[in-house]
Every structure is written in structure tokens, then in C-alpha cells.
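Standup notes
- HV: blocked on the assembly model, inputs below
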Amino acid sequence: MKLNKLGTALTAIALAAGAIAAAQAATNETIVTVVKVTGINWFNRMDEGVKEFGKENPNINAYQTGPGRADAAQQLKIIEDLIAKKVTAIAVVPYDPPTLEPALKKAMDRGIKVVTHEADNAKNTMVDIEAFDNTAYGAGLNERLAKCMNNQGKWAVLVGSLGSRSQVQWADGGIGNAKAKYPKMDLVEPKLETNNDGERAYQVAKEVLRKHPDLTGFQGSSSLDVIGIGRAVEEAGKVGKICVYGTGLPTEAAKFLESGAINGIAFWDPKLAGLAMNKVAQMLVDGKEVQNGADLGITGYNKVTVTKGPGKGVIVRGTGWVDVDKSNYKQYNF
Amino acid sequence: MKASKWLADRQFNFLIGVNVLVVIVATWMSHGQFLDIDNLQSMGGQLPELGLLALGIMLSMVSGNGGIDLSGVGLANLSGMVAAMMLPHMVSADDSPALYTAVFVCIVMVMGALGGLLNGVVIAKLKLTPILCTLGTQLLFTGIAVVLSNGASVRVEYVDPLSNIGNGTFLQVPISLWIFIAAVLLLGWILKRTPFGLRLYLMGTNPKAAFYAGIPRARMLILTYGMCGVLASLAGLISATHTSSAKWDYGNSYLLIAILIAVMGGVNPAGGYGRIVCVFLAATVLQFLSSLFNLLGVSQFFGDCAWGFLLLASLAFAGGDRVRAIFGIGGAAPKSNVPPPPASTGR
């Protein structure tokens, strides 16, 4: 009886294990993309890019993995297992770049090629890929805002967190652009913090509207800023009178884009970033370097800028942001 | 006599069986790569953090009265962070790396002991339910860590001996694994061979009888939670040296996994029962599985699913008594001990 039970339990486990044996493919080159967390729209979209790369390069086993929960510790474990697996290259979107430094150093010491994304402060990487120059991105958003505001009027900038380097760079890019080109635009609230929280962004936007009833423009930074601003603008009945632009995700911002409370959003397409990471990883494996001005053959990465990174590696920047408004947001499913 | 006694523990048999089976299947499916020295070292290096936290959960559960220590992960991160921030002001890393390392270890463990004692005092003297007390201190420890670091990672100065704790090997075995094994052996000895251990099991089994037998409840609880704190800080020491950094949200998913390991290891959440060797085996089987899935490139969600399945299988195999103890008679047992659902996380 006892043996019977044990047998049943163990057979079930063996069957489950056998079912996944098929997932194993034997090729000599393996490029693994490790994301911050699996199962969310953003990284599902990146997976599409990784799969596309795999299809274009049937001789390379390219796949994406990542922790089931957003936790730096879990991501670290995956990287360590991949080092032990002796993969050819690791392309990683670090949850927290400093946490991965020793592990990525170990990987490079063992001859594994390392590519990172969204980690321009990572020392132990060979190539860090950024979708765009943060200042240019912020200026691009501001350019659209200025057009909507007819180059004049009071405006405010929100950031998710003053500790987030990229968000502050976006905000500064926008502020700098307005200062240089549009003297009639009056920045009344520079960089109000929203704690990366849609609810807080809503409160902040409401306060700003109360303080400056004649305000006509908002630029958001965190993807939740525009959501909060959109809500506040809708509630104040000022849809169409106030221009709202910022970083946002099409699915999250859809409702407000439809109502007109948000005029436009911008983001970068994780699918293309995934493609770019794998492409660069393959170049490294083939012993090639990314040259300044090189064409990766991917939209937004047709003429990349290469600069020196904080470590031995380089930072490769594309111009891969996407401007979206009511007319075309439905093309993006994340 | 001894052999038959060991075989009588169905939980132990089950865990040994599953461990062996997973290793065999993994070796076969990975074409031997699973037993490659690199992979063994990698797994050995990953095991201790979670294992030490699970030992803490086990100790607190054994103490009974709904005992559980939810603050382990928070305390682990805080200890590492405080040491990383204090040390540069006390010892020069370049002049005396050995002293630097020693002081680092001391600060981390003292922090752990203090945090654990705080839990113990609140639970024993203020008579707060352990789950509430440690939930509170978990938020407290995490909160202090956020304030100290402004939410960013704190860098740990690179010193060879210190980095070796998390990354080095001794006799081909990761040093962190040696620490974990030492903790297992020491704790096993304390629980099995000392009066403290006997009293702890007694108190967990029947607090009333323990009271009338003259067991000093308050002192026992303070000591127990103090030990939990030290175990957590050891986990913090390993993670801080392993990653050369300390961050408030590192290992935020570890708590539920540590509870899962303890329960799968046959620890009775209602108190009074738990074998350390079983907890150790539960930790190894989870590590084997998760590394296997990574080797094969299988989704992590499948890993969660397999863990849940294993927990259910272990409960089924352990027999009705323990299942009843977990869900029924031991009313203090929190229902949250069922496996965590396949995680859904927002960005």
C-alpha cells in the first residue's frame, strides 16, 4: 500500500518531467534573454522579438526566460543556472543592475557574451542597449506638447521618482527643449514626484490644476503619470483644453486616449529591443563589434550611437521610440 | 533499531525518494550536464539563502501557538545593508581585509540577533500573536532599509575574503553551502540533544502542559525568535556578499517559498513537530527542480506549478494525521500554508 502510493506520486512527477523534455533543443549556439519578470504584457511583447530572431536564425537556439515574480534574487538564480549551463550568450534586462554585477562578471570570465538593456550604469557588460538617448526622447515628447499648446502657456512636469535616472533625464530633456525653443511656454511646476503611482499622480495633477486654473499642458514621465493626469483632467472637465503627453503604455492609456484626456503617449517597443539585444549578442559571438553609426537592420536601430559605458563595455543607443496617439495606439498590444 | 526508526518516517522516505528521482531524471534529461561540477556548485551556491530562511520558519513554527517568523527576509536585507553602510566608517577595507570581513560578519549577526530578540520580546512579553508581530516587524525592517538606502542598492565594498563568503569555494563546495550545512548540524544538535530542544518541542505540542512542567515560556520564545533572527542574518550575509550589494526588496518572493519548504519538510505549522533533515531535503529538491527547469529552458511558472504539486504530494503521502494537524485540529495554523498560486505580477 505504502509503496503503491509512493510509486503513484513518483510516476506522476516523472511524467510531468517527461512532458517538458521536448522543450530541449540541441544546437551549439544558445542565446538566452532574461527579463525582469515573465507574464506581463511588456515582456510578452519582448518575447515576440526574441522568437522572431530565433525564426530568422534557425541555427541559434534563442529563447526568453525570467522569474515568475518580480524579484532580483530570482533573476540572479536564473543567471547562475545559465552560467552553469554554459550558454553562448546572455541578454539580460536587469531588475536591479548592481545585484547582478558579480554574476555577470563570472559569466564574462567564463567566456559567455553578456548584453544588457535598460542598464546604462552596469559595469560588467559588454554591450548595453538603450532604445534611445533619454534627453532626445524627453525633447521629442516636449516638441509634441508644444505643438498642441501652440508654443505658449503654463505647463507642468511630473516624474515617477526623482531617484529614477532615466525619468529625470526625460523630464530635463523636455524642460531644456522648451527653454531653448519656446520662450512663451511657462514652466510653473518642474518635476513633481508621483512615486510611480497612478493614484498619487492623480492627486498631484488635481493640486496643480487647483493652483494654476489656466494651465494648458502636462508632460508625464512614469507610464502611470499620464493615467493620473488623464483622470484629473477628465474630472475637471478640461478635456481638449489641456494638452497631456508622456510615457505610457497603449493598453493602459487606451481609455484616456479615446476620450481625449491624453493627447499622445510615447514608449519604446520591447519587441524591437529584444530583437536588438539578440542581434548584438550574435555579433559578439561572431567576434564582431558594434560600430558607431552601424545599422542593426531593426527599425529605430538603423543608425546607432556607440559610447563608452561605466565599465569596459559600450552603450549602444538607438532612436527607437514610438509616438502614438488616438489614431494608431491599437497597433500595439501591450 | 536505528534504521527501522528512520524508515518509519514517511515524510523522510518521500523526500529522499523525490530527491533521488529528480536527480536521476534531471541527469538523464540534461545529458549529464546536471551533474557537471559547475552546475552542482551553482546549485550549492543558490541553496543557502532560502535554506537558512526556511530553518528560521521551521524554528518559529515548532515553538507552537501559531508561531511563524515573517520578518526573515526583511531582517536579512536590513542586516546586510547596515553592515555595508557602517563598515567603511570603522575599518579600512584596503588596509586589513580580514578584519574588515570579520567586523562585517559580526555586525550582520548582531543585527540579526537584535531583530530576532525584538520579535521574541514582543511575542513573549506583549503576548502579541507571532504572525501579527512579525508582519509588523517585517514592515519595520523593510521600511528602515528603504529609508537608509533611499530605495537604491547599497554597494558592499569589494574585499576578497568577504566576497568569498558568497562566491568562493572550499574543497570545491561553495563556502555559503558550508555555512548552511554548519547551521543545519548545529541546529539539529540543539533541537535533538539539548534541554532547550526538548522543551521547545514540548512547548509546541502542548503549551499548557509545558507551563505546568515549569518551562519558562517567555525565555524560550525570546531565545527561539532570537535564533530565527540570527539565521535570517546569515542569509543576509550570504546574499550581500554574493551580490556585493544589499537592497530592501531583494528576495521579496522568498518568504512564501521558505514557508513552502518548511511545510513540505513536514514541519507542523501548529507546532511541536519538525525534523531538520526533512527541511534540508525539501530545500534541496526545490533547488534541483528549479535549476533543472532553467537548464531545460522551461518557464518558471511551470516551476511554481511543480512545487505546488510536490507540496500536495508530500501532504498526501504524509498521511491523514498531518493533514488534519495542518488544516483542522491545530486551529492556529494559518491557511496561507497552501502553495502560493502561480504568481501574477504587475509591472
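- HV (later): unblocked. Chain A has ten helices and 13 strands. Chain A touches chain B through 53 residues (CB under 8 Å).
- Next: hand off to the docking folks.
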